[in-house]
Design brief:
Blueprint: H1 3-17, H2 21-27, H3 30-40, E1 74-75, E2 89-95, H4 100-116, E3 121-127, H5 137-146, E4 153-155, H6 160-164, E5 172-176, E6 182-187, H7 192-204
Parallel strand pairs: 2-3, 3-4
Antiparallel strand pairs: 1-4, 2-5, 5-6
Helix pairs in contact: 1-2
Length: about 200
């Protein structure tokens, strides 16, 4: 992974963590992001990484129905479909194993899996690779093993699921409620307590 790619990922994570950042990312195209990165990045400090807006766990309005995914290559599970997960809360994490920001989120995902899996939480790691070496199944399997990931991981090499969910950055986490509605979206690192609270709120519904 080159320094240029790492800086861009880091910048996107920083921007997403700032108030209004997620909406700005959704509105910007690639050229606009490049210009914004050049203008803003020097003024941001590492201390701002992981900052997030407070999430009111009791007020998570629907952001629309979650699109079905039909990925055929899975690790730690047979192929899953959202239609078969009604009644469960689904945490859908878009990641790629070469992304340092994604690596930083994995410990929290493991913790939530251990804590809430028996209460109805299903975590799915949707692996959408940036580079060719990240597309190889054996490399993904090795990363899953090295990171002690026990939850299901799907390959999204053609970005079909990524595009359905209109994802623009690694990592992006979505929470889907028991009725299949998207109720929460977070881009980048951080907001771990907010995310945990949102998981608990959706499990309690």
């Amino acid at each position: 992974m080159t320094a240029k790619r790492l800086n861009r990922r880091y910048f996107i994570g920083l921007l997403a963590a700032l108030p209004g950042g997620a909406a700005l990312l959704s509105a910007c195209g690639n050229n606009e992001l490049n210009g914004l990165q050049s203008a803003v990045q020097p003024s941001l400090s590492p201390a701002e990484n992981g900052q997030s807006q407070a999430i009111k766990a009791a007020a998570l309005p629907s952001k629309g129905a979650a699109p079905e995914f039909d990925n055929t290559s899975w690790i730690n599970s047979s192929p899953l479909r959202l239609a078969d997960l009604r009644g469960k809360v689904v945490a859908l994490e878009f990641w790629t194993f070469g992304c340092i920001n994604c690596q930083h989120v994995i410990p929290s995902l493991r913790d939530w899996y251990s804590e809430f899996n028996n209460q109805g939480l299903v975590i799915i790691g949707m692996h959408s690779p940036e580079f060719d070496y990240e597309k190889k199944l054996e490399n993904v399997k090795q990363a899953v093993q090295q990171n002690a990931i026990k939850y299901p991981v799907a390959q999204d090499n053609d970005f079909a699921t990524w595009n359905k969910y209109k994802v623009q950055a690694w990592p992006t986490l979505l929470l889907i409620d028991k009725a299949g509605q998207i109720r929460y979206r977070h881009i980048g690192e951080g907001a771990y307590e907010d995310t945990r609270a949102a998981i608990q709120a959706l499990l309690a519904e």
